[in-house]
Structure prediction request, 464 residues.
Amino acid sequence: MAKTLLDKIWDAHVVKSIPGGLDVFYIDRHLIHEVTSPQAFDEIEARGLPLFRKEQIVATADHNVPTKNQHLPIQEPLSRFQVDKLTENCAKHNIELYGLGHEKQGIVHVMGPELGITQPGMTIVCGDSHTSTHGAFGAIAFGIGTSQVAQVMASQCLLLSKPKSMRITVDGDVRPGVTAKDIILYVISKLGTGGATGYFVEYAGSAFRNLSMEGRMTVCNMSIEMGARGGMIAPDQTTFDYLNGREFAPKGERWDQAVAYWSTLFTEEGAAFDKELTFDAADIAPMITFGTNPGMGMAIDALIPTEVPVSEQASYSKSLQYMGFQPGESLLGKEIQYVFIGSCTNSRIEDLRQVARFVQGKKKAPHVEAIIVPGSKQVEKQAIEEGIDKVLAEAGFELREPGCSACLAMNEDKIPAGAYCVSTSNRNFEGRQGPGSRTLLASPLVAAITAVEGKIVDITQYLN
Prediction:
């Protein structure tokens, strides 16, 4: 029987099948950070359990870290406690920690791939929903809860039922100005936030194949926003070129063997999916969200929808009231106070390069605070080596130090109540970037143009 990419990797990691549909499922890489690991460490210590395979754990500090003056003690008490606890636990259990001050510290879903820790065919988990990012390499990667973090620490396995499979195909050439972020925001706007619940999504078609690895990571990162368990893209030469030479990637003869295996990781002709969806890349425009969930997205020059299903009308009205928008309204000309470029969705060097190309020789609007937070120390270092930091500074943008930052306001970076922020992050929930903050999700290109204009504009006028 023909197998999907999901089938091949899943079947290779089943230790034992249990009557009733559950599998004992082996995990290759366990990523941890300061938010969900303290409780898990407490649990295994309370049970007197050792870490089963600590060499397969990768730890970093990202959610609670400040993005200014990282050489100084963290000011926010809870954030300082969380980071200190991670440091203490890693020292106690002899786990290598890419913590504050480490040259490779960064957002876990940025630094993992750039170090070559993430590889095709792997199973990867983290106590963080956006672990799906790593599926861009042809891996099964997904977020887990705190009790499951403890399970993996103790056994390197999880007890799971195999998810359903979905293939989303987008073929054709995209329009100028359409990025990976626009493609996934478009797909989410069509499916809604629950349209892929219970599924593992494979992205196929030329629109995804033509993306860089950074773009593929952006797509897989936001699979969660339509309810999917995870997202994945079959590895190809783009994948191999990205990984070749990275610190933890195989070397020499092992590299050749790895690529030979990775090249078998594709969905075979005739393999069946539980659900298939197809879209035309030509229909996708630069996107922006207008509501309080990622499914409330539209083309940047469109009008906010006036008709929604009866079952959604109450929540829809509440969302627009929170955002200060009206049905049928255009967002063009809407003044913006903040722009945030960062997060595990869009904080890689490719994103910063795109922003720098546009803002070079320009100035941001005086009333806009434009914050750019690289995804890792290595991205920060590249930006400085390439002179991107100077270009951004001359344009009035502030390049900070790595961390999750204003994606989720679990640190010192918060958007004030009532302020509008065009953000390259992945969620626009009420208060996500700070109590009362209003978030509009968009690509780094849209964010950069908005910062310069000080308002939302039709970006197509800039694309020549």
Summary: The chain has a mean pLDDT of 97. The chain has three domains: 5-162+237-260, 164-235+266-283, 289-462. The radius of gyration is 21 Å. The longest strand covers residues 164-171.
